Amino acid sequence: MVGWSVRYLRLLIWLQWVDRRATSSFIVGITIQTAVLSLGLVQLRTLDAPAVLQAAVRASFLVGTALCALSAMSAFQNEFRYQTVWQTARDQRVFARLMLARAFAMVIITAPALLVPFIVATVLLGATVSVGVVAAMAFLSVVVLVAFTHLLTTGLALTYDPARLVPWIRQVVMVVALGTVAFLSPEPVRNVFPFVWIERMAVPGELWRSAGLTIGITGAWWLVGQALLRRPAREILTRRLTDNVESR
Amino acid sequence: MARSDPLRTSAPGLILEDAYYTIPKSRRGSARPILTGACLRVRPGERVGIMGPNGAGKSTLLKVLAGLLRLDSGRLINDGYAVTDPRWRYQRSVHLVAGAPLGFYPRLTGAENLRFMAGLWGQDVSRAQAREVLARVGLAPEAAEMMYAKYSLGMRQRLHLAAAELDHAATVWLLDEPTTGLDADGVRLLHDLVADRPDRTYLVVSHDRAFLEKLCPRIVRLDDGRLVG
Hints:
By secondary structure, chain A is mainly α. Chain A contains ten helices and no strands. Chain A is globular and about 60 Å long. Helices cover 31% and strands 25% of the residues of chain B. Chain B has helices at residues 58-65, 89-93, 110-120, 127-136, 141-144, 153-166, 184-196, 209-215; strands at 14-23, 32-42, 47-51, 73-78, 81-82, 94-97, 172-176, 201-205, 218-223, 226-228. In chain B, α3 (110-120) packs across α4 and α3 (110-120) runs parallel beside α6 (153-166).
């Protein structure tokens, strides 16, 4: 198996962009969501820095997880829909790598929207916040989202109708993991998701510990997810090829 | 290098032995046996046509030969590499030209689709190189920058041939109804492409007997799950 060049990765990002751009709701949705959530941040400007940055992290993930869930849903499905799978799945190791690359590409094209809340928070907080800390939080948000998208892509490959599952996954992420509804998201539950640890990076003295936990928890989620899902996903891929589902 | 590889199992060429394959039962229908003890031996560089009645499973046979569908039982080997090779070398040695109308991303241009496919096989193809290959299959420069969704059936078929041309590792081409949508020039081009590479092995499924007879010195028939002739 040969490595992929930067030029090829750029092509994959382009492929992801043209696929997403074609969905009429993508650009409109991403713009409205980002604008509304950023305006929400402006209303919080009287709060202290950790509280504003916490809201920025949530705003970023509310947009990012929604977009990436849609991408995760279509990455696998479209290979069958367009029947490109006859080439992309010739070597299933290449197929697995393609799914990871598409998760990465999706986060890259979502990145401007992810970064806006952090930029707004930095502007609002001015000298009371370290740009380095905000940059680290934004960077780890991107890393977490790549892992989330890839895990979701692998997981959704297991179902024949991912469109039914995605709204539920979104609700779980939004309500439980991001803690938008406090009584449904007790502290111990939130702690097993990486999102909360990115928020805590803004608390003075918590930067390194929280960054370490973000990376550790994300890595653990990804590794456990891959260990549990990779094999069944391969079997599903083989079964769907065998059934030739989309072309019948 | 390859000769001493302990995973290589037999002589060169494509070998299908005592192959059984059944399309699994689905929500829409019952299980359907496609191969019932089929055998085929193809020497390196040989051109074999495959005919058979509608629904006999010719396209499915090509997908089996491409290593995409798993045999229920039997052996499938190309140049010594079994289809079960853990490093997927069998699949890398066989290129399925599944044919129009699908097979590419509709919103990418012809050149972008080619670069995408070639990249999967480890070849970093530039835009200029992609255009060159497209020109070789008769797709004008403006077609290179046109979205695949806007391609005519014949143009799509030519793009499939261009993609196969870029797959340098494949020693076997499996062509499924390659003349679909092609005009007379396109069919001539296909003949030329095949003639230019006598080292390559071709297995061609077509309903066009005259075309097959011209292209392939040997024709087999898929009948009741077996290859005869």
